[in-house]
């Protein structure tokens, strides 16, 4: 498959995703009841951010989940350049057809999984807590890194798709929790703070782990990334257990 064909395929993927989100948005606004006038926040920027952080911290486990999802987002962003390095060094076991097609296929699987999780996952896993989804996502991240270490693309793809679906499901659930926890007049500031955290983690983690790759090699990098995920998993399990114990 040529690069021009891949560009067309990529454009069509974005068009389909855009159409799906437009359909969901239209149905949402059709069924959404009319809201009355809401109060406007007149506090300063830093005071608003401090208040947002205070309210997020007050909700038991919410801050921990925000940080875990941010780290998972960073892991997902880091995996993309690392898998390219793994494929380039192991073409016999990691390439499907051609190198460019394999990279496009991985990108398509990740994009489709995230979109599917955002649209369908919230309905399929509506009774599943955000803590459980975060635990499953972190465990799947560790398995994905394991498939990269054993260099098997056919095991990597379905597990990567599952990870993308669960991460795509976690984001709307996290937003819902924030909406229920934070005052409406500072909700936009809180969402902005959350989006900033989510956006920043990916390039920061990518820079750190690609630098490690250049210095020590891909195997050590993947091992360190796996250890990071194990630490995240232990943290979220501990927080979840603590909250369930206090609730009981």
TrEMBL record:
It is a multi-pass membrane protein. Keywords: Cell membrane, Membrane, Transmembrane, Transmembrane helix. GO terms for cellular component: plasma membrane. The keyword Cell membrane applies. The chain crosses the membrane at residues 6-24, 62-88, 94-116, 128-147, 153-171, 192-212, 218-237. It is found in: Cell membrane. The keyword Coiled coil does not apply. Gene3D superfamilies: MFS general substrate transporter like domains. InterPro entries: MFS_trans_sf. PANTHER family: INTEGRAL MEMBRANE EFFLUX PROTEIN-RELATED, MAJOR FACILITATOR SUPERFAMILY ASSOCIATED DOMAIN-CONTAINING PROTEIN. This is Major facilitator superfamily (MFS) profile domain-containing protein.
């Amino acid at each position: 498959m040529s690069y021009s064909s891949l560009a067309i395929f990529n454009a069509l993927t974005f068009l389909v995703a855009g159409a799906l989100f437009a359909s969901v948005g239209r149905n949402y606004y059709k069924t959404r009841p009319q809201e009355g006038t809401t109060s406007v926040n007149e506090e300063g920027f830093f005071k608003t951010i401090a208040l947002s952080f205070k309210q997020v911290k007050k909700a038991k486990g919410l801050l921990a989940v925000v940080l875990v999802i941010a780290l998972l987002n960073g892991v997902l962003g880091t995996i993309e350049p690392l898998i390219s390095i793994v494929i380039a060094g192991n073409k016999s076991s990691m390439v499907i057809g051609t190198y460019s097609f394999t990279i496009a296929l991985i990108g398509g699987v990740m994009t489709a999984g995230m979109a599917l999780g955002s649209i369908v996952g919230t309905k399929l896993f509506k009774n599943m807590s955000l803590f459980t989804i975060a635990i499953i996502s972190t465990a799947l991240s560790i398995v994905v890194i394991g498939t990269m270490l054993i260099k098997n693309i056919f095991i990597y793809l379905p597990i990567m798709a599952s990870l993308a679906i669960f991460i795509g499901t976690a984001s709307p659930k996290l937003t819902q929790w924030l909406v229920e926890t934070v005052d409406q007049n500072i909700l936009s500031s809180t969402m902005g703070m959350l989006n900033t955290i989510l956006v920043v983690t990916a390039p920061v983690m990518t820079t750190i782990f690609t630098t490690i790759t250049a210095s020590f090699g891909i195997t050590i990098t993947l091992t360190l990334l796996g250890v990071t995920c194990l630490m995240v998993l232990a943290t979220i399990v501990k927080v979840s257990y603590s909250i369930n114990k206090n609730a009981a």
